[in-house]
Amino acid sequence: MNANLRPDVPLVGPAGAVELLKEHVPQRKVPALLATGLLGTRYRHGAALLVAQDNVERAIGLPEVDMERLHAQMGAVFVTRQTCRTPVTDDPTRQWLGVDVFAPMAEQVAAADRWYSVSEQTRAAMRDRITTDGFVPLVSTVSGLVALCLEIIEVPTNSGQVRLGTRPAGAWAQEVTDRWLPTGPGGNWTWA
Known about the structure:
The protein is α+β, with helices and mostly antiparallel strands. It is 28% helix and 26% strand.
């Protein structure tokens, strides 16, 4: 997970990253963003988690998703609000949830495609869209920074927590990768 410290690379921890990211990320969410790997290799120094300052500055300069353009091309997008990798013990289908960009892709997908409380009306609308368009775009974010894109190709009919059938995202994902997609506060998913 973490690399050895490199004295030739200026590093920042949570306090420095909070200051740099204050226009993009609420202070309380910065440690989770650092832990995801979205800001590059994570370095451990004692209890502190550090990342290269250049990577944080690069993230600050990333553009926001052009939602008007995305909607014109794709329609509404199912956006999941994630946090950093968190172990789970009550789910035999995955070992953790959240985001860890250094994990194998199959583990990242398993962490992102389940379990969401989606109303019957929304599930029906998603199934209709899959029938019409072939898929519903899914974008996972951490503190507004896009972490993973998938395509929802199956939505169960059962009520309660659902696991979405997904596949890797197509070319449309280039419109949102390495961008900010702020959705504001809310539950673990929203339409954008």
